[in-house]
Design brief:
By secondary structure, this protein is of the alpha/beta class. Helix content is 38%, strand content 15%.
Length: 247
């Protein structure tokens, strides 16, 4: 049985003070679903978030990690620093990183391996563009992205979370139907099984295309969907509560 995960990707939102305030509100939420809850604020807010989360069952994640231990990589953050701050999870390969910051399947793999080496748990994002969806090659695209991201992961596969995020559904209000999302995630799990065997049944695969408090129940009712990587709906406690308590 895979424990559901609801992870909030706050993107470039919330100052440190706003981060603390939102976390205080989130700590008041009764988690009736039993899902593992993760919040991923901006890097500059991680220290504030770690302090605010003390004593709670909410886990802390970051939005990116570099593949080098240190060096001349202005604007990046290394895994050791995230670990020292109390970060447990890190989002890798989000479509916005791929689109705006030249992230590739290869660098996603490099960042994934570095995160695992440091004891962080990567939330690896995969997803097709609208053009790829229209061409009917969704499964080919996401399965290739998944296999490349997981090269040389080996026995640490149990520490990896995959997030299927159709690029055309991020920030648009559009969402895949529960059945389509379930089928694609099933294909991703099949790709993992080809490489890692029965471990695929333990890997959590989230859906991340505009999941919110209105559609979370129907999406989470699908057998292959193990949770959500939530954008806009994670920025307000009331809406995020509706996602966390999807059942």
């Amino acid at each position: 049985m895979r424990t559901p995960m609801i992870a909030g990707n706050w993107k470039m939102n919330k100052t440190p003070a706003e981060t603390k305030a939102l976390i205080e509100d989130l700590k008041k939420i009764e988690n009736r679903s039993g899902a593992e809850v993760v919040v991923c604020p901006m890097t500059v807010c991680l220290s504030t978030a770690a302090e605010a989360l003390k004593g709670s069952e909410i886990h802390l994640g970051a939005q990116n990690v570099h593949f080098a231990d240190k060096g001349a990589y202005t604007g990046e953050c290394n895994a050791a620093s995230l670990k020292e701050l109390g970060v447990e999870y890190v989002i890798i390969g989000h479509s916005e990183r791929r689109q705006y910051f030249a992230e590739t399947d290869v660098t996603v793999n490099q960042r994934t391996l570095k995160a695992l080496e440091a004891g962080l748990k990567p939330i690896v994002c995969v997803g097709e563009s609208l053009e790829q969806k229209q061409q009917g090659i969704t499964n080919e695209v996401v399965c290739l992205q998944t296999k490349v991201a997981l090269l040389n992961v080996g026995e640490k596969i149990d520490d990896v979370v995959i997030a299927y995020e159709p690029v055309w559904a991020i920030g648009t209000g559009l969402t895949a139907t529960p059945e389509d999302a379930n089928a694609t995630i099933g294909a991703i799990r099949g790709a993992i099984r080809e490489v890692f065997g029965e471990a695929a049944d333990r890997v959590r695969i989230l859906y991340g295309g505009s999941m919110n408090d209105k559609n979370a129940h129907d999406l989470m009712a699908q057998p292959e969907i193990d949770g959500g990587l939530i954008g806009g709906a994670s920025l307000a406690a009331e809406k995020f509560s509706g996602v966390i308590n999807f059942n």
